[in-house]
Each structure stands twice: as C-alpha cells, then as structure tokens.
Amino acid sequence: xxxxxxxxxxxxxxxxxxxxxxxxxxxxxxxxxxxxxxxxxxxxxxxxxxxxxxxxxxxxxxxxxxxxxxxxxxxxxxxxxxxxxxxxxxxxxxxxxxxxxxxxxxxxxxxxxxxxxxxxxxxxxxxxxxxxxxxxxxxxxxxxxxxxxxxxxxxxxxxxxxxxxxxxxxxxxxxxxxxxxxxxxxxxxxxxxxxxxxxxxxxxxxxxxxxxxxxxxxxxxxxxxxxxxxxxxxxxxxxxxxxxx
Length: 245
Known about the structure:
It contains 1 helix and 22 strands. The longest helix has 6 residues. InterPro entries: RmlC-like_jellyroll, RmlC_Cupin_sf, UGlyAH_Cupin_dom. This is (S)-ureidoglycine aminohydrolase cupin domain-containing protein.
C-alpha cells in the first residue's frame, strides 16, 4: 500500500486505493453508502460515499468533514437557511448536531470522520475555496526543506479540541521537502495547483485540482509543488486524540 491514499481523481481516472463497504458504528446515518479507505489511529476514518435521498439525524454520532466532488448536498439545521454544498465545496458537521441531509440527485462525497465522545463544537461549518486566509502560525522547519521557505496561509473553521480535529482551508507558495514521517492524520482535497508526493520506494503520487487524498500519521512522504497550492484539509494528531478520550 502506498503512503498516499487517493480517494478521488477529478479526471475520472481509476484509483488504486482499496475501499470496503462499512458503517462507522451502529448509528452511522451514512452506513448504507459509505466506502472506507482508511480506519485507524485517533478513531479517524476516510473514504467516499455516494448518497441519494434524504436523512433526518437527531444527533450526528461523530465529527465529519464532507467534500462534494460530484452533484450537490443540502444541509439543513434549525434556525438557519439551508446550506447547499456544491462540487469543490464542503462542510464540517460537529458531533451531536441535529440536521437534515438531502440530495436532488446522486452526490459523490469524500469524507474524513472521527469519533468524538465529548463534543464541544456542534453545528455545521462551511468550507469554501474563497477563504479568509491568515498567515499560518506554524512554519515548516528549514531542516526538512529542499529549497526556499514557503509562505503558508490558513483559515481554520472548525476545531474540536477534545480530539485534536482541525479543519479549514490552506494555501502555500511552491516548496519542496524531504521524505519524512507525516506528523498527523491528514485529509486533503486539492482546490488549486498540484502536488507530487514522494513515496518511500522512490515512486511518486501526483495529484491535481479536484483530487482528494488521505495520509495516515506516520506514513513517510515527501512534498513537491511548483505552483501555488490550495486545499481543504483535516488534520488530527492521533496520540493526542487517544489521550483526550
């Protein structure tokens, strides 16, 4: 298995990632449609689902980020206007949220979910490409870079501190870094630009705008980009998430 799990390619090209049909526990509202590519440390899962219909959920059972790659998904919560999530946009759903999920036709969605026994954040939080970017607080260490230090920005829209689950939008100027163990579980949906992920065996996994990937914590990968890259992301430090349960 490669370190970089490709969940979706916008080109329509097939992916080599192996998916299995399963729900995330007995009360998973998406259980009939869910296909899991990764289920591991930090109680985190990632994969895809093709949903068609309407779901009324009294209390969403976990934290989940959904990015629509085909079709559209409507999310309704009490007291708020319906949120229509179209292709290349997304939403984070906090654990315990009451909501209705609906499609007018089939929608293909990539997801990143995590168990959350003691949620502090409820509600729905849109992910948008036109984000309110601010300089990232954490810069890349110079010792891992194979070129100039990049300028990175982020817009964090959701932070469930109890499980160290952070989601938002990020962008960066081009950069190149060594192959190293990835410090977090990370879901990425590329919005702009492209990335070449170097694998430990010397192979390269290339992704472009519209593609979605998941990299487990500890997987050894390198990064090389020759243009601005923007992405939706979810990151989670698995050891911290386990300790927080």
